[in-house]
Amino acid sequence: MFFGFFRKKESEEDGSPCYDNRLIERFAQDHRQLADAVKRIENSWNRGDWGKTIKLLKRMEKAVLDHFMQEDLKLYWYLRKYYADDPAQLATIRFFEDSIKPIQKEVVLFFDRYTRKDAILDETFKKNFDSIVRELSRRIEAEEAQLYPLYRKR
């Protein structure tokens, strides 16, 4: 790009992400949008509008998976590098990084099952949806309280 030297640097020479002073703010906004999406899905499901519910689930799926990817690419990588010489903090970061993997797998399986055109959105769906929402809510609270405060500029 001709004017590329005017762009903000997004990664270090080793490929690791640079500090982004708006990253945590964007993640918190993602969390608020997720809460709104949950309400819209619940309202749609309560009205029996299965087509709308599936469309909303597809949007939620994209948002959640994008958020997971951004955390992987920007947050965890940066934190591992920043705290490379701090074994206690690094252990906390690795715990969060490792503990999200089963949640991600569960979320992907949920969306694979319930975003198909022929998905049955019965009481089992609602039970599974509520379970996913509880799990994500617990995770969000833990991230915001324990992980996000570790994100600092060098």
Secondary-structure-derived class? mainly alpha
Number of domains: 1
Please state roughly what percent of the residues sit in beta strands, choosing from under 5%, 5-15%, 15-25%, 25-35%, 35-45% or over 45%. under 5%
Shape descriptor reads elongated
Write the layout of secondary structure elements.
Elements: H1 23-47, H2 50-82, H3 87-114, H4 123-147
Helix pairs in contact: 1-2, 1-4, 2-3, 3-4
Short account of what is shown:
This protein is an all-alpha fold.
How would you characterize this protein structure?
This protein is an all-alpha fold and 154 residues long. It has one domain. The protein is 72% helix and 0% strand. It is built from 4 helices and no strands. Helix 3 packs antiparallel against helix 4. 11% of the residues are buried. The N terminus is likely disordered.
Using brief descriptors, characterize the structure shown.
0% strand, 154 residues, disordered N terminus, elongated
